[in-house]
Design brief:
The complex is a heterodimer of chains A (273) and B (310). Chain A has helices at residues 15-31, 34-61, 67-71, 82-104, 106-113, 117-150, 165-190, 193-212, 218-223, 227-235, 246-270. With 273 residues, chain A is an all-alpha fold. Chain A has a domain at 80-142 and 159-270. Chain A is globular and about 65 Å long. Chain A starts with 14 loop residues before the first helix and ends with a helix. In chain B, a hairpin with a 2-residue loop joins strand 8 and strand 9 (204-210). Chain B has helices at 40-47, 90-100, 105-114, 130-142, 160-175, 187-193, 211-217, 230-239, 259-268, 282-291, 302-309, and strands at 2-11, 14-24, 28-33, 55-60, 75-78, 148-152, 179-184, 196-201, 204-210, 223-226, 243-246, 252-255, 275-278. In chain B, the strands form three sheets. Chain B has a six-stranded mixed sheet with strand order 5-6-7-3-8-9, sandwiched between helices. Chain B has a four-stranded antiparallel sheet with strand order 11-12-10-13, with helices on one face. In chain B, strands 2-1-4 form a three-stranded antiparallel sheet, with helices on one face. Chain B folds into two domains: 2-217, P-loop containing nucleotide triphosphate hydrolases (Rossmann fold, 3-Layer(aba) Sandwich), CATH 3.40.50.300; 223-278, Alpha-Beta Plaits (2-Layer Sandwich). By secondary structure, chain B is an alpha/beta fold. The longest helix of chain B has 16 residues, at 160-175. Classes of the chains: A mainly alpha (273), B alpha/beta (310). The interface between A and B is large, with 41 and 48 residues.
């Protein structure tokens, strides 16, 4: 059977090289669809665009604001409004990375080529996490520089060197990376694009509003655990004193995708593909 | 070599595969036949470790599929031809599968050429015809040059030229000593391609034998003869030891006589013939006979309609 040996065999390459190949394989898939580029572009356009609009508008209205309104102005959180929509875009991209494999049936081809399902999920998480983090940080910093330049006339503008600014802006990018991984984990858990996007939307978008309507102290006691408010503690220059402190918030924010990914890996190992 | 031993698989209440055992030896094209819902795809998914059986196990060359690292070098599979991401090109699809199995880009380019997709390799798969998707699936199965190959309904959507290409490909792969398992509901196609058959119905094994033995054991092969003097011809044939049945269209079905004997008897009696042929539908009939009880999804309209036609 000489014909069977024409392909170079690399099975002896070791687990490190094997896993690097899985990451490359996922990266080829990720870069192989246009929706990846459209989604990332949309994130940048919405995030940076809205911050420019808000910066511009705020600068124009500034002379007419009362002292009280001026005191309540957070030049960071206010100009990052666009990322509230942006988080849904990057989250949907995370969902689609695996739910599209289920909806098309590709997942069976994938697992028939790589039976190590949890490693596939891990490779996807690495590709998704790194891409989302890099693009989101770039978007967050671009939004920051543009908005702060536009806010110059108000005297409220920040520079990277301002106390807390660097940490707050990079937290914005980090949060978007977290949401992308949450999307991936929900996509793997629920296997349906619409269901997983709805679940993600509820978790990061609807739940904070619902919980804030609860009677005190439940609004804060539950609300402080939600990803949106954990991120708020990190991105805001003046964290909410009723919520969890920053270090705890950061740890919990990172724990979210970890817990959901572990749950997704558990389901992948148990269920039929 | 594929070994399926005593597999049972339920989906909720539905029993998809019921204590199924068979082996697929190397060096042959083995056809995997059964009506819709017989459990063919389930069995293939169990062999590939995609679905976990409730009982029993399937091994490929003695190992469970799930334990293989970079399995494309040992087992290539084409499952559902439409199971590709519509937004991705054939090249990206194959390169990703290849990379995960340590196979280089050179092999991907060669295969795209071999299956005739090199010109559309970068176009979105969503725009491909079913036949093109089948070729892409076949290329994916061949990536690692594996000794064991599984194909689920690969003929669907292929044009006649594509069907011949696939048949020759499968036979040459088997001639190289590989193990080939091909599921199909196109029995006539399997009769020309497969030299062994595994037939299942309602998740159970109906036959595991060579194609020729399957045909011989099924309905006895029959000769169809047509003549304006059917009554007289029937008498002559029965006198010579044949058994004759009247067919719906006025022809005669003859069993127990060789085809040249039927021609000879008609000529000697001076009876004009309009048709004389061996009935090639015998595999279909053997199949229908053997799986008659096993057809799970029969259209409720089927019987009244055919009754009306008569």
């Amino acid at each position: 059977m000489a014909a069977l040996t024409t392909v170079t065999r690399m099975a002896a390459a070791g687990p490190g090289a094997w896993f690097r190949d899985l990451i490359r394989a996922e990266s080829i898939k990720f870069r192989g669809t246009r929706s990846t580029y459209y989604s990332l572009l949309a994130l940048v356009v919405v995030g940076v665009g809205v911050s420019a609009l808000v910066g511009q508008g705020m600068a124009a209205r500034w002379p007419h604001l009362t002292a009280e309104q001026r005191a309540g102005f957070d030049p960071l959180r206010t100009t990052f409004r666009g990322f509230e929509i942006g988080q849904l875009i990057i989250g949907a991209l995370g969902v689609l990375m695996i739910s599209s494999e289920y909806s098309s049936g590709l997942i069976r081809t994938t697992f028939a080529a790589i039976p190590q399902r949890r490693s596939v999920l891990m490779a996807k998480a690495i590709v998704m996490g790194i891409t989302a983090l890099v693009v989101a940080e770039a978007a967050a910093f671009s939004a920051f520089f543009i908005a702060q330049a536009l806010l110059e006339p108000t005297g409220m503008s920040l520079s990277v060197g301002s106390p807390g600014a660097l940490g707050a802006v990079s937290s914005m990018g980090l949060y978007l990376g977290v949401v992308a991984l949450l999307g991936l984990a929900l996509g793997a858990l629920l296997r349906h694009t619409a269901g997983a996007i709805a679940a993600l939307f509820a978790l990061v978008f609807l739940l904070p509003g619902v919980v804030s309507a609860l009677p005190s102290p439940w609004d804060d006691r539950i609300g402080e655990w939600l990803p949106d408010n954990l991120a708020g503690q990190l991105v805001s220059l003046r964290p909410n004193p009723d919520y969890l402190p920053r270090t705890t918030s950061l740890a919990l924010l990172l724990a979210y995708p970890a817990v959901f990914l572990v749950a997704a890996a558990w389901r992948l190992g148990r269920s039929d593909a | 070599m594929i070994e399926v031993s005593d597999i049972t698989k339920r989906y909720g209440e539905a029993l998809a595969v019921d204590a199924l055992s068979f082996t697929v030896p190397p060096g042959h094209v083995t056809g995997f036949l059964g009506p819709n819902g017989a459990g063919k795809s389930t069995t293939l998914r169990v062999i590939l470790g995609l679905d976990r059986p409730d009982r029993g196990e399937a091994t490929v060359d003695g190992r469970r599929f799930g334990t293989l690292i970079r399995p494309l070098h040992q087992v290539g599979a084409q499952l559902d031809a439409t199971a590709v991401h519509p937004g991705r090109g054939a090249e990206a699809h194959l390169r990703s599968l290849a990379r995960a199995n340590g196979i280089g880009g050179r092999r991907v380019a060669d295969l795209l050429e071999q299956v005739g997709l090199e010109k559309v390799a970068r176009r979105r798969v969503g725009g491909y015809s079913l036949g093109m998707k089948q070729r892409l699936g076949i290329a994916a199965a061949l990536l690692g040059d594996p000794a064991v190959l599984l194909f689920d309904e690969p003929v669907n959507g292929l044009d006649p030229e594509g069907v011949r290409w696939l048949r020759e490909l499968l036979q040459s792969l088997a001639a190289e000593g590989r193990t080939i398992l091909v599921s199909s509901h196109l029995l006539s196609e399997m009769a020309q391609t497969a030299d062994r058959l595994v037939v299942i119905g309602r998740g159970r094994l109906i036959a595991d034998t060579t194609t020729s033995a399957f045909i011989a054991n099924g309905s006895a092969s029959r000769i169809v003869v047509r003549s304006p003097y059917a009554g007289e011809l029937a008498r002559v044939l029965i006198e010579d030891g044949g058994s004759v049945e009247a067919l719906e269209d006025g022809g005669l079905g003859v069993a127990g006589l060789a085809i040249d004997r039927v021609g000879h008897l008609a000529a000697r009696a001076g009876l004009e013939l309009h048709e004389l042929r061996a009935d090639h539908a015998s595999l279909e009939e053997a199949f229908m006979q053997l799986t008659a009880d096993a057809v799970e999804y029969r259209s409720p309209l089927e019987e009244p309609v055919s009754a009306k036609e008569r």
